[in-house]
Amino acid sequence: MLRHEFQPGKLIAGLALTLAGVVYAGDAGGLWDTPWFAIIPLVTVGLFLAGATSVLTRAVRRRRSPRTVTEPRQDIPA
Fold it and tell me: Per UniProt, which keywords does this protein have (predicted)?
């Protein structure tokens, strides 16, 4: 039994922000030198990809979801 559905957009957002944190930590720790403006496009592109993935996932799930047919109510006279 699944507790929740898989959401790949949140996974991509988390990976992008984790990568930005690793780049920032490496620069702060002296392992490499990162320009101050490098984090902005990294986070922006990561969040854009996460949003695009979420929209695509929603479209696929909406299209594949079974269509429910409503039955006519019995208590209303015709």
Answer: Membrane, Transmembrane, Transmembrane helix
